[in-house]
Write a structure and sequence with these properties.
mainly alpha; 5% strand; 300 residues; DNA-binding; 13 helices; homodimer; 5 strands; globular
Chain lengths: 300, 300
DNA sequence: ATAATGTCTTTTATCGTGAAAAAACATTTT
DNA sequence: AAAATGTTTTTTCACGATAAAAGACATTAT
């Protein structure tokens, strides 16, 4: 088995959802851009849909014959990228405790444990290394630096530097820039979420990322924009991991975001700076309290 | 051919240089740490040295029999890492012109052209991607973003942010910190180079990197320290590439460094800030003038 | 003529494999 | 006993091979 067809399976599932909405499907290239895959994959999808009697397919005519049933879908776990699988496995081990700083990381062992080739693990580790949690010893193993207090402090230091600058750049953007509409949209999403906070307070994580990415993009600096990947990654796992007072935390954060949005709209740099600082301070606090104190980080 | 023995060859060459200085070699583990390789490699080296009559080897006794001659050495090009070979090839293409922004990068083609496996090229590109010059399209090719004016501006923006902060942190370091001795040593190296600038004005590049890395380290922030890799990489190729007024530029830079060092030693934050800004401004200018204007970078 | 479909080619993603290098273990020497 | 040498096992690094996916080219339909 040399390569899984998860791209096909994932696109197939997404295409099934499309099926419920129309009586016939668009052209192959159109479907391709819609699903974000090549026409080759689109045709594989159509072939199978024809076989399973979901559509009748004759050249341009792709008529929907029946609504998809739950077992037309490929199982969720078969649609994951190998990289995602490896990342999840790796992060589980890392956060499940017993991952002491200084510990060695063994490519071969990881690969065997996850059941994938070493190449994929190697590539993952190289990509992952930019998050600053692991480090390579030349011609030798990787070393785990650990998800320590020091890490969180270094991360947030940069984050604050970057976001303050981005927020200032945002506020200085001309009135006719498209970002103001984006900001309005995010604002109403925040208000909506604030009302429904009881039901779906875990939807905040995703909204949070969209909001901060919008601000960082105003910096028009690829290094700042890219750095948000590090933050997003940490917060992603942080949210999954630390559920203590999640609802309260999110409620507070939504409030801070709304104030922050207000400040941005006022275009008053002083207000922006204050609102941004306030939010980042509490975000840092949240992150810090979630890190087990037990193992103090020592710097040489 | 599945893996070159460049580690062995490089360590062998370095060990030959050691040979000229002593009558007998130290223990295997000692040699290992000295050369930065495992004992396995040390033993391979010793075996060959015995075969070629350089040493007599009997257990602990490793007596030097003769001085190494030039053809005892492995050729320089056989001691390079694959990663280095790929990087050089890649950068040559990138800087040799004809590398328009937006151009596709083809792993297979690169691998064939350089004469290496695709895996190594892939891994190189993943590692290289953190420099912000290339970007991956999911399940597809890489895209060259180009060594443009925009890139240089984004890079220097971060650099200035990071270095100003690091310099301030540096100046605030306690008097008994080891960095002050390092700084003194660097200062005298600068003065020495200033005198000999006529002969070895290209030695500056290496000194420059050591100086700035020392300052960045004072930030005690891995993201700041790691970011210097990006700067170092760009400047490394920049120095190789742009030889115009090299001597004058370096002379100016040495002067600025000395003023910067003076400011640091004064521990006066105002002075540090001013000296740092002044130097970074001219460094940016140097970098910018070396970028061909022809193809203006467009941001969307 | 444009845009779709049908077909063929190239590239990417992933694995298993084997040599180089590291690391672990066993034995000897000081 | 500590530290070296001798020996064996593991891991890393890099390759070629192969299926999935993308992309290019040829043909047909509007």
């Amino acid at each position: 088995m040399s390569k899984s067809n998860n791209v096909y399976k994932d696109a197939y599932n997404r295409c099934l959802r499309l099926l419920g909405e129309t009586r016939s499907l668009p052209s192959e290239p159109e479907l391709g851009t819609l699903l974000g895959v090549s026409r080759t994959t689109v045709r594989s999808i159509l072939s199978r849909m024809e076989e399973t009697g979901l559509i009748a397919w004759n050249k341009r005519a792709k008529t929907v014959l029946r609504d998809p049933s739950p077992d037309d879908f490929f199982p969720e776990e078969e649609t994951d990228t190998l990289a995602e699988i490896i990342e999840r496995s790796f992060m589980r081990r890392l956060l499940a405790g017993g991952a002491e700083a200084g510990m060695q990381i063994n490519e071969l062992e990881l690969a065997r444990e996850i059941g994938v080739g070493t190449t994929s693990v190697r590539e993952f580790l190289i990509r992952f290394s930019r998050f600053g949690l692991i480090e390579k010893r030349r011609n030798s193993h990787w070393v785990l630096k650990g998800f320590t207090r020091a890490f969180a402090l270094e991360l947030t230091e940069i984050r604050e530097m970057f976001e303050l600058r981005s927020a200032a750049a945002f506020a200085a953007l001309p009135q006719d820039s498209a970002v103001w509409a984006d900001l309005d949209r995010l604002e109403s999403e925040h208000r909506q979420l604030a009302n429904e906070i009881a039901m779906r307070f875990n939807a905040f994580s995703e909204l949070d990322e969209r909001f901060h990415r919008l601000i960082h993009r105003a910096s028009r600096n690829r290094f700042i924009v890219d750095f948000y990947d590090v933050i997003a990654m940490i917060f992603h796992y942080h949210y999954q991991w630390n559920k203590a007072q999640e609802r309260e935390r999110n409620e507070v954060a939504i409030g801070e975001h709304l104030a922050y949005i207000e400040a941005l709209k006022s275009r008053d740099l002083g207000k922006v700076d204050a609102a941004c600082r306030k939010h980042l301070k509490s975000a840092r606090q949240t992150l810090l309290t979630s890190i087990p104190e037990s193992r103090q980080s020592q710097k040489p």
